[in-house]
Amino acid sequence: MSGKPRLTYLNGRGRMEPIRWLLAAAGVEFEEVYLETKEQYDKLIKDGFLLFEQVPLVEIDGMKMVQTRAILSYIAGKYNLYGKDLKERALIDMYVEGIADLMQMILMFPFSPPDAKEKNLDSIKERATNRYFPVFEKVLKQHGQDFLVGNKFSWADVQLMEAILAVEEKIPAVLSGFPKLQVFKTKMSNMPTIKKFLQPGSPRKPPPDAHYVETVLKVFKK
Amino acid sequence: MAGKPKLHYTKGRGKMESIRWLLAAAGVEFEEEFIETKEDLEKLRSDGVLLFQQVPMVEIDGMRMVQTRAILSYIAAKYNLYGKDLKERAWIDMYVEGTTDLMGMIMYLPFQPADVKEKNLALITERATTRYFPVYEKALKDHGQDYLVGNKLSWADVHLLEAILMAEECKPDVLSAFPVLQAFKGRISNIPTIKKFLQPGSQRKPPTDEKFVAVVRKIFNI
Question: What GO annotations for molecular function exist for this entry (chain A) (predicted)?
Fold first, then answer.
């Protein structure tokens, strides 16, 4: 009954990408089912697969899990990427939630009206460089360790790595004021499971393009 | 070093209310420091006590915790309201994310212009009665137990009660088609710690009115 986890989502990043990152970082192979039409999505709902009528959906360990954060927490817990005790988990949760707020801006960006795009890009740059990256730069500087929490690779490191690369796609020089984060990025890139995920042919999805936006609007149309 | 947790927020519900509910349900006494002006918020920021420059912030067990979900997860785990294992936690997380989505819609209602507000009120009622409440009604009906997960009071039950009461404030008869949820509401409301929280004079905050919206707008510059 337990095989590989199976992910159901569109063939793009969206809300599933952090889940792909975390499974990949944990060295867990997974399968994917891609939603391409509204009919497929409606059928999933009709068949009772989606607890709240929404994707992401991850079939894992006999559960049909929905809600991105619930799925990520489960994976982190299962694969020992959630710290060693309650306090380390608290730190990981805080870091991950902050990064999720930044990633939310990037997630919504392709859907902004054309006249708002420049303003939204500026907001992403401002938040990344003034609110989020300084926090993680400082954390790494203060303890001088390779990983954000407990001197051990965790969900927080994976999430931060994903965010750094996502922001750099939009603002290539964004790490220029953050030497520790540059070192962090290099270290993460060289971890075997992450290195593999960053290579062509991996399950990592490309940045959203017009076709992706079109598919989203089509599949989730009311 | 252990004193009572100290909550930093405005004197209203917002994102802190779920935290007040959970601490109260767990029987934990807490203190509150209210942000009343823009200057109060600025001072917290310049004192460097807000990791991402945002509230809620809860001083607890020597940490200055931020990010609502991180705080709630920590409290739930600390006070044994998070299930007995990873799978129960997964279910609690899924359920809580659903009620978070519903309460999120309700939270923003007072801040919307009148014409948008009416449309969103209809959407809230629709979502509550067709997407969210049916899930919890079915979960309770299927296992016939008093609580959502593992036959034991958990964060999911507290959060669901909070969501039910908020939805009822929007539409008093919203539970009319959900007999099992009506029974759940009665039962959970009678748990001594929760009953106490529901009484006048507790730290539970009233619904957000127009006057308070103006205060919030000024403090957060929105």
Answer: glutathione transferase activity
| pLDDT surpasses 50 at B1 | no
Residue carrying the six token digits 């990981």:
A92
Provide, as residue numbers in chain B, all residues whose Cβ is less than 8 Å from the Cβ of A135.
51-52
Counting the structural domains of chain A, the total is 2
The Cα-based distances of A175 to A18, A29, A142, A187, B40 in angstroms read 21, 31, 18, 15, 32
Residues of B with CB under 8 A from a CB of A: 51-53, 61, 63, 65-70, 73-74, 77-78, 86-87, 89-90, 93-94, 96-98, 101, 131-132, 135
pLDDT for B114-135, tens place per residue?
999 999 999 999 999 999 999 9
Is the ipTM beyond the 0.90 threshold? yes
User: Same structural domain for residues A49 and A112?
Assistant: no
Host domain of residue B152: 86-191
CB atoms within 10 A of CB A133: 22
Indicate whether A217 belongs to any domain.
Answer: no
